[in-house]
Amino acid sequence: MTPAGERGPAALQEARRALAELTAVARTVRGRLGDQAVVAQEAACRRLRRRLDLGLDHTVVALIGGTGSGKSSLFNRIGEMTFSEVGVLRPTTADAVAFVWGGDAGPFLDWLGVARDNWIRRDSVLDGDVAAMRGLILLDLPDYDSASGEHREVVDRVLPLADLLVWVTDPQKYADPSLHRDYSGVLAQRVGNLAVVLNQVDTLAPDDVPAVLQDLSRLLKRAGSDVPNVVVTSALTGDGVDSLRQLLVAARTEEATPAERARVLLGREATRLREEIGPPDGLDRSWIEPARRAARDQLLALVEAAPEPDEPNPAPQIPSVEQIHGVLLGWLERALVAVPAPWGAAVGRSLASGVNIRARLDEAVTAALAGSVADAAQPAAAPLSRRGRRARRRAEPEAAAASAAGSRHAALERAVSAVVERTMTFPTNAVLDDWVAVTGKLLALAAGSRGQAGAAA
Ligand SMILES: Nc1nc2c(ncn2[C@@H]2O[C@H](COP(=O)(O)OP(=O)(O)O)[C@@H](O)[C@H]2O)c(=O)[nH]1
Ligand SMILES: [Mg+2]
Predict the structure, then answer these.
(1) Ordered per-residue pLDDT tens for the chain, 457 residues
(2) Residues in CB range of 393: below 8 A, 6 or more apart
(3) Which residues line ligand 1 (CB under 6 A)?
């Protein structure tokens, strides 16, 4: 394995570059996100920047779950020291407490908000494993189901910072509906990787363990989890604690180098942002052409006043701003069918205003009429023979009028079409193109995080 220190600076530089890209992408889609998502996104980028500033030597594993499942007991077992308070009846852990293996973790723990009295170094234990545990920070969090808002606040603040969440449950509690509510809540935050521990297995008859595990897996699946397997432990007897420790070591070594850690973190944020802005996969633009035609026809009908018998070519009307708004609304209605609300709103903002469209129509129609009058005055492009010229002069006046009206109609249609293109089709497509481009960048950032980690391994 390449020593982390050798690749560290380059990896950090690469991570900072990717973070800058992610931040830039986030800025361009700010208008497409809800206020909450913007706040979350900015916080995530800030967190990531701070984390890069702190170096990438630490892996944060958090024990989480309902009151009394045995988080604190397991925590103490893993650290081989009674450091976290174990409660018999009531939740006890009000602050996060931590074990730290190796390294200078002080600033990192400050960032996590773990007070100096609440963490302790464990370099001396697990002598054989200490190299593998190096950089690991194990957090015992307050109970997630606790009624105390203070507990909840600590958990919600720390959760997004954890690299691995270990959800601890027990044979009594796992079927409790509140577990699923809380568990789904944690899942919804899409933080860290997730592992599940069934603790207090000593309270089960050995024969009952497989059935309970099967049941638990079924419930997890129903809660929307893809947790592949469940570690079975007893903090009382120590059974399974080694397996749990291996899980932590795996979390540590899987992303052991700064490069991989940064890529995983960035990839996670890119994926989250991508989910936030919605997937344009199979983006349906088939509505644009019919919508374009509908808008053109509506405007054209407004421009071309009905001919009167005594005035076959009445002067074109320039529609009122209200009439143009009606056309714009029709356009948006069609746009909003195929496009999620935030992008629909972006489309709305990108369109020209009614006043602007009216001015452009006026200009285009005037130019078109001047052009079509000029057209009618011009002889056909090919020089006619004398006979041809004579034939033309003899041509019936109605036919000449009809042809003039036809060319006038065509010219007006071209003019209106151009205005619809410029003020509706083009800006709408630009927003949709943006959406596709941004998603592509985020995909690349997310895939780069995996692909390069794979290549580096
Ligand atoms: N039988 C048994 N009791 C346990 C086990 N783990 C924890 N306990 C007990 O369960 C209670 C709550 O444990 P604690 O570690 O405080 O749970 P926490 O609230 O999740 O931190 C305490 O009385 C522990 O002694 C276990 O594996 N088996
Ligand atoms: Mg506890």
Answers:
(1) 444 444 457 777 888 888 899 898 888 888 777 778 788 888 888 888 888 888 777 888 999 888 889 999 999 999 989 998 887 555 555 678 999 998 788 888 988 889 899 999 987 655 555 677 888 999 998 776 655 666 667 777 777 778 888 989 999 888 777 666 666 666 655 445 788 999 999 999 999 999 999 998 888 887 776 666 789 999 999 999 999 999 888 877 665 556 666 777 788 888 888 888 877 776 788 889 999 999 999 999 999 876 666 776 778 889 999 999 999 999 999 877 778 778 888 888 899 999 999 999 999 999 988 876 555 555 444 555 566 556 555 655 666 666 777 788 899 999 999 999 999 999 999 999 988 888 889 888 888 754 443 333 2
(2) none
(3) 65, 67-73, 86-88, 91, 93, 143, 199-200, 202-203, 234-236
3-class state of residue 393 by DSSP: helix
Q: Which protein residue's CA is at the shortest distance from atom 12 of ligand 1?
A: 68
273 located within any domain: no
Indicate which ligand has the atom closest to the C-alpha of 69.
Answer: 1
Q: Based on the fold, state whether residues 61 and 167 are members of the same structural domain.
A: yes
Query: Considering the entire predicted model, what is its pTM?
Result: 0.64
Query: What atom in ligand 1 is closest to the CA of residue 140?
Result: 21
Q: Do 99 and 172 fall within a single domain?
A: yes
E strand spans, 208-276: 230-232
In the chain, how many domains are there? 2
Are 198 and 327 part of one and the same domain? no
The conformation of residue 138, written as its DSSP 8-state character, comes to E
Nearest ligand to the CA atom of 145: 1
Say whether both 111 and 211 belong to one domain: yes
198 and 100 both lie in a single domain: yes
Mutate to test the pocket of ligand 1, among 63, 72, 73 (most ligand atoms within 8 A of CB): 73
Compute the distance from residue 143 Cα to the ligand 2 centre, in Å: 7
Q: Which residues form the domain of 183?
A: 57-255
Single out the residue of 123, 121, 172, 118 nearest to residue 141, CA to CA.
118
Q: What number of helices (H) and strands (E) belong to the chain?
A: 17, 7
Nearest-atom number in ligand 1 for the CA of 235 is 27
Check whether residue 230 and residue 340 sit in a common domain: no
Closest ligand by atom to 238 CA: 1
25 occurs within a structural domain: no
CB 314 within 8 Å of CB 307? yes
Based on the domain organization, do 223 and 82 belong to the same domain? Answer: yes
Backbone angles phi, psi at 137, to 5 degrees: -120, 115
231 and 326 both lie in a single domain = no
CATH number (domain holding residue 197): 3.40.50.300
Contacts of 336 (CB under 8 A, 6+ apart): 344, 347
CA of 255 to the centre of ligand 2 (A): 28
